[in-house]
């Protein structure tokens, strides 16, 4: 029995200064609409950290340095593959905040996040970013069930 499984590798980064964070209001035509943190896919040949630095730059115009891996988010797709999001935090950056085709980016008060029109799953993802005692968010479905079960560890 092989232990190998197909996986899609992605990243997300919370860029912060004091009580503010950079958020992205994703364009509805891009899929997964709503407010989220910037991020994207890991490209062949790049490290996970290199991918988050590249994605943040492409989506925000900011060049981040020393992003810190703070956790992961993952689930099993219907085809049995795993979708993995590496979650990073970063407070060191340069450049000017600039929106992209992915959506509008802006500074938001961290306290205002729960009242925003969030992308699906962001409310529980915040737990990994904001709590020191949680490093993983997993979604599971029971056999034959459509509803996701959320596990924070």
SSE inventory with pairings:
Layout: E1 7-17, E2 20-26, E3 34-36, E4 39-41, H1 48-60, E5 62-64, E6 68-76, E7 82-90, E8 93-95, E9 103-109, H2 122-130, E10 136-140, E11 149-152
Parallel strand pairs: 1-7, 6-10
Antiparallel strand pairs: 1-2, 1-4, 2-3, 2-9, 5-8, 6-7, 10-11
What does this structure look like?
By secondary structure, this protein is mainly β. It has one domain (7-152): Nucleoside Triphosphate Pyrophosphohydrolase (Alpha-Beta Complex). Strand 2 and strand 3 (34-36) form a beta hairpin. Strands 1, 2, 3, 4, 6, 7, 9, 10 and 11 form a 9-stranded mixed sheet that branches. Strands 5-8 form a two-stranded antiparallel ribbon. The longest helix has 13 residues, at 48-60. The chain has 2 helices and 11 strands; from the N terminus they run E-E-E-E-H-E-E-E-E-E-H-E-E.
By DSSP, the count of extended strands is: 11
Reported for the largest beta sheet, the result is: 9 strands, mixed
CATH homologous superfamily grouping: Nucleoside Triphosphate Pyrophosphohydrolase
Oligomerization status of the protein chains: single chain
Mean pLDDT comes to 95
**Percentage beta strand:** 35-45%
What's the total helix number? 2
What is the C-level CATH assignment?
Alpha Beta
CATH architecture: Alpha-Beta Complex
């Amino acid at each position: 029995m092989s232990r190998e499984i197909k996986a899609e590798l992605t990243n997300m980064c919370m860029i912060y200064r004091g009580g503010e964070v950079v958020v992205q209001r994703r364009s509805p035509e891009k899929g997964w609409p709503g407010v989220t943190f910037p991020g994207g896919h890991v490209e062949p040949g790049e490290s996970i950290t290199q991918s988050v630095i590249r994605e943040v730059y492409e989506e925000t115009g900011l060049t981040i340095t020393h992003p810190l891996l703070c956790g992961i988010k993952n689930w099993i797709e219907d085809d049995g593959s795993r979708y993995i999001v590496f979650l990073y935090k970063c407070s060191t950056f340069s450049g000017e905040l600039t929106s992209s085709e992915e959506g509008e980016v802006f500074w938001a008060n961290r306290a205002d996040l729960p009242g925003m029109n969030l992308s699906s799953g962001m409310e529980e993802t915040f737990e990994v970013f904001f709590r020191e005692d949680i490093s993983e968010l997993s979604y599971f479905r029971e056999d034959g069930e459509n509803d996701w079960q959320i596990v924070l560890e």
